[in-house]
Specification:
eight-stranded antiparallel beta sheet
């Protein structure tokens, strides 16, 4: 098997510095992401973790998750105290000697002349430290354990550490609440060494401890098993995943597991740098959204007054049937993770659906994103409805009670559900505007300032898309009254379109337009503007064209949006997403290029996709980027879909789910489907350095007259034969 993991650059994009954005010593969706930290105290989860701008390491921590962190360790030489904190024990390092690939990270700590190596299983972090061979007695080796310093978004509230024997230590650390996570949660751990260590006295009210190692004659290996539920589970995770295995064996297993995940899509030909970047993008699509359940299937339920330990059902082999996850929001996942996972990693969608339904049974809601066993309410609207619609309509999820699932989803579309809550609104249901949305057909400005993202216009448009996604499931399940109800609601985005200006725009409670109006203004919009959200409703392309008065008028305004955006490199800085018409470094713009294709101009889709990729999403060096925040795989997954020429502007959630076909960036793409079937995309006439247009296309020997196939078509397997040309051809896309 080819070594695709070796092509990955895990450091790509970390010029921003975000706690959840980087992982090196980890497994796909692994609980543990053991990585060097160059700064640990940030603004929320921003400006912390691993940052390419820094040249000092403050320690190696095990948890880099959505609103979760902890267990910071640092090897040292000499009389260095853990109570000095990271500022006192940090070390310079050189990127010239750094090595980083999926499942493994090696750095040299220049202050101490220590070589640090890291690898991981799903729930265990493994360190190997090579100390200088000629340590004088006055300069002993030690391992510092800091359970008091802030780790990323979380303040460490309390902790414990005890020594069981000369080589075993155990403890816990409590992650405090944040504005994104309303409750604290506990991380338990067991630490073992392959050499004797002595725990020096420390202040138990602020656990910053030193393990003295003396003068090690050989590299020291440390294993840290982690659990969100208990010390018993941490011990079981440690034993199950690492017992009897050396550092080198575990490192090789981590690399092999990553390679097994990446090899599901094999790309050949084209530009070699773009091929390498492809596997980096795919790596990030499988990196975040981390596991939080134990190897035995226990997980923490933090939705009630007190945390409870619950059990995932076991299969015939006494293994958990699925996992539980921590996750940022699924905001924008309908144009990235969902259609990618649906085609290539359908088991992940199935697991997430089971996880979310457990959280519904535990606490009464399907969440936007869970953290620490509880709800986070990050971002807006009912973001997980498209995930479930895709899963159920494409036969990827098989619940025991589909009626329960539908009612759980439906709840989020009414008062008291997710459409009642604005971004980060944890304790109230006032910022989502659902009552106005139902009564008026739009959400006015001036919602109560109870949280973030209380923007009436963008919430109206997002609610409309999510209502449409629910329609797709209601139709499949035969809920005809709901089909009529939510179809009407899915057109509510039209109520914000003002033909006198040619944009969707905010409205007031009395029905008037919000004044003054500028299509680049922030007011009314979540992380975007009127340009972006006017073109947000890919589920209703006919309605959009009708709003503009003609197809030509629609296409002309869309073309203008791209022309203006290219002048600003399709990118806006964080918190200023409104300053460019289409910011492709953020979620709301991700489907806009494909609207050309839905309106019958696939050539403009192909042209602008190539311009966006080449401008802000190309290259495979650490300093290259996605143009913005990677957001736990969303940007990586979007790049993957665009690169192989498959995309679903509607989130692959209708029946049948539709995928748009565009020009692939490689001469050959082979996707391994369930049951070992293969889907091959073979492109002739590819010019790696230029925009390519689809001249003709055949699927399993039959010519296609439109650039579209269903999910069912694609998952049967076979071969797409794509003839590419440097000039647009006559193929169209039905509108």
């Amino acid at each position: 098997m080819a070594d695709y993991a070796s092509l990955v650059e895990p450091r790509l994009g970390n010029t921003i510095g975000r706690w959840i954005s980087f992982g090196s010593a980890c497994r796909p969706f692994g609980l543990v992401a053991l990585s060097p930290d160059t700064r640990i105290d940030g603004n929320g989860d921003w400006g912390c973790g691993y940052n390419l701008a820094d040249n000092e390491i403050v320690g190696f921590s095990h948890i880099h998750d959505w609103q979760s962190g902890g267990i910071l360790v640092m090897p040292v030489i000499g009389d260095v105290s853990a109570t000095a904190g990271p500022a006192g024990f940090k070390s310079p390092f050189s990127r010239d000697t750094e090595f980083c690939k999926p499942g493994y990270h090696r750095v040299h700590l220049d202050r101490y002349a220590i070589t640090a190596e890291l690898t991981a299983t799903a729930r265990v972090g493994i360190h190997r430290y090579t100390f200088p061979s000629d340590l004088p007695s006055s300069q002993p080796a030690a391992l510092l354990i800091d359970l008091a310093s802030q780790c990323g978004p979380c303040t460490m509230l309390s902790a414990s550490l005890s020594q069981l024997n000369a080589r075993t230590f155990e403890g816990h650390v409590v992650n405090g609440p944040t504005k994104r996570k309303p409750k604290p949660h506990t991380v338990h751990f067991v630490l073992t060494l392959d050499t004797d260590a002595t725990l020096a006295p420390f202040d138990p009210s602020r656990v910053q401890a030193r393990l003295d190692l003396g003068r090690p004659a050989a590299p020291v290996t440390i294993k840290v098993g982690v659990s969100y539920t208990s010390l018993t589970a941490a011990r079981a995770n440690l034993h199950t995943e690492t017992a009897g295995k050396s550092f080198d064996v575990l490192r090789a297993e981590a690399h092999a597991e990553w390679n097994d995940a990446l090899v599901r899509i094999v790309v050949e030909g084209g530009d070699p740098v773009r091929r390498a970047r492809f596997y980096t993008d795919l790596y990030f699509a499988l990196l975040g959204r981390r596991t939080v359940s134990d190897c035995t299937g226990t997980y923490i339920d933090n939705t009630g007054p007190q945390p409870l330990i619950r059990q995932i059902p076991l299969n015939a082999e006494s293994l958990p049937r699925y996992r539980h996850f921590n996750s940022d929001a699924f905001w924008g996942a309908q144009w990235s993770l969902v259609p990618l996972w649906a085609l290539v990693y359908p088991e992940i969608i199935d697991e997430f659906c089971h996880c979310f339904m457990d959280l519904y049974r535990n606490g009464g809601l399907i969440p936007r994103g869970p953290t620490g066993g509880n709800y986070t309410f990050v971002m807006t609207s009912a973001q997980t409805t498209p995930l479930f619609a895709c899963a159920l309509n494409n036969d990827l999820h098989h619940p025991a009670n589909v009626k329960e699932v539908y009612q759980a989803l439906r709840k989020n579309h009414f008062p008291g559900g997710l459409m009642s809550k604005a971004g980060y609104e944890h304790t109230t249901c006032q910022g989502g505007g659902i009552e106005d949305y139902i009564a008026r057909g739009y959400i006015p400005e001036g919602l109560p300032p109870v949280a973030m993202h209380t923007n009436g216009a963008s919430q109206t448009i997002e609610h409309a898309y999510n209502d449409w996604a629910l329609v797709q499931l209601a139709r499949t399940l035969g809920h005809h009254v709901d089909v009529e109800l939510f179809t009407r609601r899915s057109r509510n985005h039209r109520n914000l379109f003002d033909p006198s200006v040619g944009f969707c725009r905010p409205r007031e409670r009395d029905g008037s337009w919000t004044e003054p109006f500028n299509p680049l203004q922030k007011k009314g919009w979540t992380e975007a503007n009127a340009w972006t959200f006017t073109f947000h409703s890919a589920h209703d392309i006919a309605g959009l064209i009708e709003c503009f008065g003609s197809r030509d008028a629609f296409l002309a305004r869309l073309e203008t949006a791209f022309v203006l955006s290219e002048k600003q490199n399709f990118f806006a800085p964080r918190d200023h997403h409104n300053v460019v018409p289409l910011d492709f470094g953020n979620e709301p713009a991700l489907a806009t290029a494909h609207l050309f294709q839905l309106a019958g101009r696939p050539d403009r889709t192909q042209f602008w996709l190539r311009r966006v990729i080449d401008t802000i999403k190309a290259g495979n060096a650490p300093t290259d980027t996605w143009g913005g925040d990677e957001d736990q795989g969303i940007m990586g997954a979007w790049n993957v879909l665009v690169s192989i020429g498959l995309f679903s502007a509607t989130g692959a959630c209708e029946m049948p789910a539709r995928y748009q076909l565009t020009a692939p960036f490689f001469e050959r793409v082979t996707i391994t489907l369930p049951a070992g079937r293969k889907l091959r995309i073979v492109a002739s006439g590819l010019t790696p350095t230029a925009t390519n247009y689809v001249e003709s296309i055949m699927f399993n020997g039959a010519p296609l007259t439109a650039l579209e196939l269903t999910h069912a078509d694609l998952t049967v397997g076979g071969e797409l034969q794509v003839v590419l040309s440097p000039a647009p051809a006559g193929l169209s896309q039905r509108a």
